[in-house]
Amino acid sequence: MARINPALREPTYDNVQVGELIGPLTVAADEHYLNRARFALEDHSDEYNKGPESLVPAPMVGRDLVALFCEVYDPSRTVGLHQKEEIWFHGEIPLGTTMEYTGRYTEKYERRGKGYTVFDCEAREAGTGRLLVRQISTEIMRIPEGIKLGTGSAPVTEGAQRIEPRWPTDREPVAKLSSDTEVGTPIEPLSHTARQDQMSVFSGESQQWYNIHTDIEVALKAGFRDTLAQGMMETCWAAQMLRAAIGPSWHHSGWIKMVYLKPVFRGDTITCRAVVSGKETVDGKTKLTFELWAENQDGQMTAAGWASGRLG
């Protein structure tokens, strides 16, 4: 059952204050944070299992930045839907790092009766100011009457239609990319099931946030047939896939932008796919660009986007 926090603002389009600084919020990337991230993302890559030498999954920091507005706006009254995320990975996050999150709404606008907000935020290492992750989130915070939630019937965000899920059949997907990789090469897909226990950890249930991702009653009241995973979970899964293919350099050169097209409900199995769409040399390193998408067990595309990263 949702608990209203009267000390926080109601998260509505009209209440959003453009330009207001939110934060800094200090977060410890300690062992508890690492364990929570590995479980929520189901990512047990070797670099996250090296004891004191472990890294912390940077995509989880991206998840935190999405939720930073909840320091000012009540998370248990949130009714908006994220439309797209854009994330830049600037540096590795060693276990034990103290991070500072800051962000601000930079824009809000109306289109086709819907109210959009744009939130620009970043995570830096406390003390040094080293930039770790930057993220820009676009969310619909005003939904007009007549749009039925959970059906994918709303108009597609501009730009998303440029991604066509064409999976090459003339070559095998590769697990590791190299400077010899050709444009048109698919990379090894990654599948995850949206499980409620992981969705709940990812979406703040431990902080007593009651929302469409953690609470079935809230989801039903909002017009959905079940709880649904945050779109950001798909972005995290796609980033995991790209990190495996590109290697450690993803942590300081990775960029990903995804547009969310259809809800991902509890129990859905999502497969992330990517195909190399471009190749160039930047500062002596091979930079690859990708078209990527996510699809559910019925073959429906739930998200689409673009990414890039340097090798080596």
UniProtKB/TrEMBL annotation:
Q: Which Gene3D superfamilies match?
A: Hotdog Thioesterase
The highest taxon in the source lineage is Bacteria
InterPro entries for this protein: HotDog_dom_sf, MaoC-like_dom
- Please name one Pfam family that this protein belongs to: MaoC_dehydratas
The MaoC-like domain is annotated at: 182-287
Please state what the protein is called: MaoC-like domain-containing protein
Species whose genome carries this gene: Skermanella stibiiresistens SB22
